């Protein structure tokens, strides 16, 4: 099967879409670029569909590479038959491929290998022929110095038969199907460990049984972690009698002494070879499903977080709260540049609130502050209460901002490079302030795993996780667009076609030559050639550019087309931009060509109506209930304001202004069945919740989403 046919089979996409998308990949085009600027070629595929093609392409290439390796090995062993070669070349599954190769795979010396060395394979063949009447008499002929009696001869022959049975693809496929559909995962506690404090969070799994096929991602990963930490044992349980009877029907074609020997070999084959091998495979498949599900949740959360509402270009005073070590203050200008930093001590043990209030008031006036950002960690509520006491001369908005990952950033090489002369506390405070100004621009500097919006992120496949999260960041950065004159190296590196080294070169060019004044100037950056320019230009913005289209998502390759539109309407480009009435009157069909179709033309018109429009919402002020300071203040039935701070498959967690987040279980999100939590809430959404249950001892809070 060709790559082209394989991808069509896997994706069910049209042949033209697949053919042209593959061509674009060969030209090193990125997924965001293809999705945004090559809609006519792909048949208007979105990023998800384009990624499906890429995944299918990578799988096929891995499959073909493995086939070549296996065929080469079989030829070297001189065991490659025409039939086997045909089967190998026809398969489109790595799993089937490995099953076909299994009998010839070089492996550690087995018990069956030892039996063969003892000359017992002919006896095994006689038994499998199922014609012999007196097998003990025949077995006597195969005794030797190593095999001293007929019993040992029959045991050795059965070991060989057991291996033959275990290598049969039809039997493996049947057991694989049974395990993947009907087996249960069962757990039991390890008595010596159950009293440990760490074990208590896994106590639900001290005695648990559930269908392996239906077990939710979070539960499977929790069980795996509990097993890894030594609190439980895990085993698979199914209808073994049915499986063994099926194998018997497949293998045994007679009755009598040979059948009895084969029955013994089947039982041994299943217990010693098939169940361990295919059981592990079933667990690996369940782990893969759980990983994919958890990663999908993580990716959705990350996307919502990255596309969180920015305050915009406002001056911010950021506070990283603390008790003993004080509250670190930093003042940032509209672009996030650090203007000032110092520490105040309004909380115990110093309790110097008077000086703290005076200092905050003075700084807000001196640096013309528009908003205050308070980190949501230790002493956050106390600091927020302090700030809200202050009577500012001008209106100043107060926001509580997530600190998740700020400490990771403050100790990173990126932070040290940005602020070589400041300590980690200052860097962390700057990060809090910048997150309010532009969450996307700041959060791309942090490893997504450290942002705290995932579930079991350290238990899932790390390569899959990194790949998925990098794609999310890339998608978000390119969807929003990047101001090339203010963007950090971290942010620029995610722009289509750029990467880390070119991002560094852009920052270096900016430092040496000042701000870019046009998109054309981008070509002057060292090693940024025409191919990279085409991939990246549409996502890079030049604010206050002389040529207005340079601050839009319109690609430079379409500038001439827009100039033609403007000329045909008897207008200048600046008169066309933002003129909704005029733009809607343009007959787009007149501008269709081989390269440009209606999808691209509609995108262009939409952009011209509101060029450079940020797709994100604007930041909104939020206040927690000031009477709730700890879990002890919660009462069943209370209605509280909260912020969704994590989303899982089983519900979402809500910050109500105390150390512990409360859980809204899926059953308490709506009156209807909830299949996808993201359809009901989004990360950082401001909600009203009702307290259903408070377990102070276990520090667990059950909430219900209140319909406002």
Question: Could you give a short description of this structure?
Answer:
It holds the Pfam family HHH_9. The protein has 708 residues and is an alpha/beta fold. Helix 8 packs across helix 11 and helix 11 (150-166) packs parallel to helix 15 (257-306).
Folded structure, characterized:
The chain is an alpha/beta fold. It is built from 29 helices and 15 strands. The chain is globular and about 105 Å long. The longest helix is centred in the middle third of the chain and has 50 residues. A hairpin with a 6-residue loop joins strand 12 and strand 13. The model has no long low-confidence stretch (mean pLDDT 94). Among the domains are: 102 residues, Arc Repressor Mutant, subunit A, CATH 1.10.10; 75 residues, OB fold (Dihydrolipoamide Acetyltransferase, E2P). The two termini are 56 Å apart. A 5-stranded mixed beta sheet has the order 6-5-4-7-8, sandwiched between helices. The protein has a 5-stranded mixed beta barrel with strand order 11-12-13-15-14. It has a 3-stranded antiparallel beta sheet with strand order 2-1-3. Pfam families: HHH_3 (PF12836), HHH_9 (PF17674), S1 (PF00575), Tex_central_region (PF22706), Tex_N (PF09371), Tex_YqgF (PF16921).
List the helices and strands and how they pair.
Layout: H1 3-11, H2 15-26, H3 31-37, H4 39-42, H5 47-77, H6 82-90, H7 94-101, H8 111-117, H9 121-129, H10 135-140, H11 150-166, H12 169-182, E1 184-189, E2 207-211, H13 217-228, E3 232-237, H14 240-251, H15 257-306, E4 316-320, E5 327-332, E6 338-344, H16 353-366, E7 371-375, H17 380-389, E8 397-401, H18 406-410, H19 413-418, H20 424-437, H21 439-443, H22 462-480, E9 482-483, H23 489-492, H24 499-513, H25 530-536, E10 540-541, H26 559-568, H27 573-576, H28 580-585, H29 598-609, E11 639-648, E12 651-655, E13 662-665, E14 686-695, E15 700-705
Parallel strand pairs: 4-7, 7-8, 9-10, 13-15
Antiparallel strand pairs: 1-2, 1-3, 4-5, 5-6, 11-12, 11-14, 12-13, 14-15
GO cellular component, one term: cytoplasm
Domain S1 motif: 637-706
Protein name: S1 motif domain-containing protein
């Amino acid at each position: 099967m060709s790559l082209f046919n394989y991808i069509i089979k896997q994706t069910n996409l049209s042949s033209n879409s697949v053919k042209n998308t593959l061509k674009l990949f060969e030209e090193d085009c990125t997924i965001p670029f293809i999705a945004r600027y090559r809609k006519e070629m792909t048949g208007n595929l979105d990023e998800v569909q384009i990624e499906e093609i890429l995944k299918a392409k990578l799988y096929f290439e891995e499959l073909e590479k493995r086939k070549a390796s296996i065929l080469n090995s079989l030829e070297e062993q001189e065991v490659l038959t025409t039939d086997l070669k045909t089967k190998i070349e026809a398969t489109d599954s790595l799993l089937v491929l490995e099953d076909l190769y299994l009998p010839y795979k070089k492996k550690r010396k087995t018990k069956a290998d030892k039996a063969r060395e003892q000359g017992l394979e002919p006896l095994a063949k006689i038994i499998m022929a199922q014609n012999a009447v007196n097998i003990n008499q025949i077995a006597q002929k195969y005794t030797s110095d190593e095999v001293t009696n007929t019993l040992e001869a029959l045991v050795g022959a059965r070991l060989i038969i057991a291996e033959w049975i275990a290598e049969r693809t039809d039997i493996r496929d049947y057991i694989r199907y049974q395990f993947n559909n009907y087996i249960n995962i069962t757990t039991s506690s390890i008595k010596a460990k159950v009293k440990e404090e760490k074990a208590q969070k896994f106590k639900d799994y001290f005695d648990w049984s559930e269908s392996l096929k239906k077990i939710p991602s979070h539960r499977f990963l929790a069980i795996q972690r509990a097993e890894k930490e030594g609190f439980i044992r895990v085993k698979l349980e199914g209808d073994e009698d049915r499986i063994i009877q099926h194998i018997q029907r497949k293998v045994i074609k007679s009755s009598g002494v040979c059948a009895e020997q084969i029955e013994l070999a089947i039982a041994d084959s299943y217990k010693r070879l098939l169940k361990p091998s295919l059981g592990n495979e079933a667990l690996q498949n369940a782990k893969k499903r759980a990983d994919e599900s958890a990663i999908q949740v993580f990716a959705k959360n990350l996307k919502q977080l990255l596309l969180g509402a920015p305050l915009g270009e406002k001056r911010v005073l950021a506070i990283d709260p603390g008790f003993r070590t004080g509250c670190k203050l930093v003042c940032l200008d509209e672009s996030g540049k650090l203007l000032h930093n110092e520490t105040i001590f309004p909380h115990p043990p110093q309790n110097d609130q008077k000086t703290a209030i005076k200092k905050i008031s003075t700084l807000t006036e001196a640096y013309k502050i528009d908003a205050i950002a308070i980190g949501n960690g230790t002493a956050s509520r106390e600091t927020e209460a302090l700030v809200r006491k202050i009577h500012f001369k001008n209106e100043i908005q107060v926001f509580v901002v997530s600190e998740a990952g700020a400490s990771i950033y403050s100790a990173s090489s990126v932070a040290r490079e940005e602020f070589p002369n400041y300590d980690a506390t200052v860097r962390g405070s700057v990060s809090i302030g910048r997150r309010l100004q532009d969450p996307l621009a700041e959060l791309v500097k942090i490893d997504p795993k450290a942002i705290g919006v995932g579930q079991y992120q350290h238990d899932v496949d790390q390569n899959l996780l990194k790949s998925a999260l990098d794609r999310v960041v890339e998608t978000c950065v390119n969807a929003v667009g990047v101001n090339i004159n203010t963007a950090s190296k971290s942010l620029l590196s995610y722009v289509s076609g750029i990467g880390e080294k070119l991002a560094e070169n852009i920052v270096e060019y900016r430092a040496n030559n000042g701000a870019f004044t046009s998109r054309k100037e981008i070509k002057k950056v060292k090693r940024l050639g025409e191919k990279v320019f085409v991939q990246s230009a549409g996502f890079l913005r030049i604010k206050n550019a002389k040529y207005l289209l340079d601050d839009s998502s319109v690609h430079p390759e379409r500038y001439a087309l827009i100039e033609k539109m403007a000329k045909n309407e008897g207008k200048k480009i600046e008169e066309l931009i933002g003129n909704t009435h005029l733009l809607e009157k343009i007959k787009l069909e007149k501008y269709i060509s081989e390269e440009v179709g209606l999808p691209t033309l509609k995108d262009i018109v939409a952009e011209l109506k509101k060029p450079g429009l940020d797709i994100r919402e604007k930041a909104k002020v939020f206040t927690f209930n000031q009477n709730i300071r700890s879990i002890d203040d919660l009462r069943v039935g209370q209605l509280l304001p909260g912020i969704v701070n994590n989303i899982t498959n089983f519900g979402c967690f809500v910050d109500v202004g105390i150390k512990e987040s409360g859980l809204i279980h899926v059953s308490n999100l709506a009156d209807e069945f909830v299949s996808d939590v993201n359809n009901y809430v989004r990360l950082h959404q401001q909600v009203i919740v009702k307290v259903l249950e408070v377990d102070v001892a276990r520090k667990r809070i059950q909430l219900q989403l209140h319909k406002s």
